[in-house]
């Protein structure tokens, strides 16, 4: 499955199938939260949170791809990511784009 953030694929004529998305709500765990609190005292990257968000993005993309495959898509164009805080200690990550099929 080709994934691009442009609204076209060079050299391909596309049939639009529709919007696809994948999301996950991820929560912090106590250990990462405690270490993040300590890190705020000295500064720098909070690697536990970086890893958590990277994993959440990967899961969201996988779910988006699964949805596109179920539609018979060859690619997803115009991919975007968004995240938001839902409550104390939980964030949603969403990946979305347009599922397309190559026109032969």
Tell me the layout of helices and strands.
Layout: E1 2-3, E2 14-27, H1 30-42, H2 47-70, E3 75-87, E4 90-102
What does this structure look like?
The chain has one domain (2-102): Translation Initiation Factor IF3, CATH 3.30.110.70. The protein contains two helices and four strands, in the order ββααββ. It has helices spanning 30-42, 47-70, and strands at residues 2-3, 14-27, 75-87, 90-102. The protein has a four-stranded mixed beta sheet. It is elongated. It starts with a strand and ends with a strand. The model has no long low-confidence stretch (mean pLDDT 87).
Q: How would you concisely characterize the structure shown here?
A:
The protein is an alpha+beta fold and 104 residues long. The protein has helices at 30-42, 47-70; strands spanning 2-3, 14-27, 75-87, 90-102. It has one domain (2-102): Translation Initiation Factor IF3 (2-Layer Sandwich), CATH 3.30.110.
CATH H level, superfamily name: Hypothetical protein apc22750. Chain B
Q: Main sheet, how many strands, which sense, barrel?
A: 4 strands, mixed
- Beta-strand percent range: 35-45%
Number of strands: 4
What is the fold named in CATH at topology level? Translation Initiation Factor IF3
Order of helices and strands: EEHHEE
Instruction: Assign a percent range to the helix content.
Output: 25-40%
How far apart lie the N and C ends?
17 Å
> Over all CA atoms, what is the radius of gyration?
17 Å
By CATH reckoning, the class would read Alpha Beta
Estimate the mean pLDDT confidence: 87
Q: What is the SS-derived class?
A: alpha+beta
Counted up, domains total: 1
Model regions low in confidence, pLDDT < 50 over at least 5 residues: none
**CATH architecture name:** 2-Layer Sandwich
How large is the count of helical segments? 2
